Amino acid sequence: MGTRAGGAGGATETGPSSRFIRTLWWFTFHTACATAAVALAYLAPAAPLSGWLRGPATLTACLLIPLAALLIPVLELRPVPWDRRKLAWQLAFPVLTGVVLGVTAGQAGHADGLRERGRWTQAVVVERKEGKTDRCVLRDPAGREISPDLTQGDGCDGYVEKGDVLRVLHDPEGAADPATDEDTPSYGGFLVGTALAHVVLGTWGSARTPRLNPGSRANPVNPARPGPGGRPARTGRRP
Questions:
Q1: Is the overall model pTM greater than 0.70, yes or no?
Q2: Which residue, 35, 38, 168, 235, is the most exposed by fewest CB within 10 angstroms?
């Protein structure tokens, strides 16, 4: 039997068939999240998407989709008392793997976009912006600014100063980050591993939440509040 009704407490027991269906649903949901995140983050620089779409697509892939992987399972916990929601810690895993997945897919898209459309040019450093990640503002020989800026990891190193001339591989579409090195890393293996981790951990974490539902034995519906002295409160009238 898939479900068995409980006694006066209204508890129910979920059978293997119901648990399998819920697990399959969560597996499909997190697979769709991983696919959408990879597609949006990768295509933004690789396709490339229009300039006014790249920012929202990247934000959706790296932030909104990972949050959806957390918030949608949490909606099932609304009837659960706060003191029992601590068991939902496993829902943090799809958020972390989702963010890593979006960022990695974006880096893969930048690398492939630059590999497909990149052009070499002699660029002049017109400004150096220092921060957590240094950035160099570049202009080509015709005086046009190269967009986006050259980052510290792609060639804006500590020895580069304003006025230096660098040989840069840049994207004429302005979608992929420029670089001074033609050899771009391959993200395929790491991307596949992160996607699998996101789906597996997300499915595992989400499938555990039904154990906290008010219909489970751990949290019966409308449990009788204890009366004075620890005795169960009377719910009916005296005859």
A1: yes
A2: 235
